[in-house]
Design brief:
The protein has two helices and 17 strands. α1 packs antiparallel against α2. The strands form seven sheets. The protein has a four-stranded antiparallel beta sheet with strand order 5-6-14-13, with no helix packed on it. Strands 9-10-11 form a three-stranded antiparallel beta sheet, with no helix packed on it. Strands 1-2 form a two-stranded antiparallel sheet. By secondary structure, the protein is an alpha+beta fold.
């Protein structure tokens, strides 16, 4: 197979992955705490034999999570929390502790503060946060300190990954890390607010159009090459 076809097929595969990522970003532009993702491309250069020029091929090697701040939206919910600045909430899941920026929490039947999926929210010490029964006033200070009827009972844990590249999407708005997240000092928590998605719809739609056009150009090249090869085979076979 011609090197040009190999290169184009590799490029098409990467563009398809990028299109899937962009489509997922657009689908979640209204999802609380969603982080925009992008595709990381790597270039591989092969030294060909003889006087042939080197062959350069690009491939999609992974995803990068955009950690820019989303807009804080006031809800008035006393268990709704939003983070301003860096950091994540940490939640306990069957697959291990994971990070999220989605702060739509609620007390479970047993009095544990949980996410919409039922995963316990962890405090600064890595333990589930308990909501005392019959509490009339539940307040969260900017530093994450939780008070029930005026008495401090816990502190919401804020954590950060060892590196932004260490974040891997684990489903919805949750991320797993290969190493233990580090406690974050000096974070800011807002009670009665939720952080919106950090997806820019106009930028994502523009990117989708650009990727689609690039894919169509590559497909046009492959179709032309297929026609050329068929023509050569038919000519030789006569």
């Amino acid at each position: 197979m011609d090197n040009g076809i190999y290169t184009t097929l590799n490029r098409q595969s990467g563009l398809m992955q990028e299109m899937q990522v962009v489509a997922n970003n657009i689908a979640n532009m209204s999802t609380t705490g969603f982080r925009r993702e992008g595709v990381i491309f790597a270039e591989h250069v092969a030294d060909l034999r003889g006087n042939e020029p080197s062959l350069s091929m690009a491939s999609a090697e992974g995803r990068a999570v955009n950690l820019s701040q989303g807009v804080l939206q006031e809800t008035g919910g006393r268990f709704d929390l939003a983070i301003e600045g860096e950091g994540f909430f940490m939640v306990q899941t069957p697959e291990g502790n994971q990070l999220t920026r989605a702060g739509a929490f609620t007390p479970s039947a047993d009095g544990t503060l949980v996410t919409a999926e039922g995963h316990p929210v962890l405090d600064s010490g890595g333990s589930p946060i308990a909501v005392p029964p019959g509490v009339a006033q539940w307040s969260v200070a900017r530093d994450g300190t939780i008070s029930a009827d005026g008495q401090p009972v816990a502190q919401v844990g804020l954590y950060r990954p060892a590196s932004p590249a260490d974040l891997t999407e684990a489903g919805g708005t949750r991320f797993r890390t290969s190493s233990d997240p580090q406690p974050l000092e000096g974070g800011h928590v807002f009670q009665g607010f939720l952080e919106g998605s950090n997806v820019n719809p106009v930028a994502e739609i523009t990117r989708m159009i650009a990727v689609q056009r690039a894919y169509e150009m590559g497909q046009g090249f492959l179709d032309a090459e297929d026609g050329r090869i068929r023509s050569v085979v038919q000519t030789i076979g006569r």
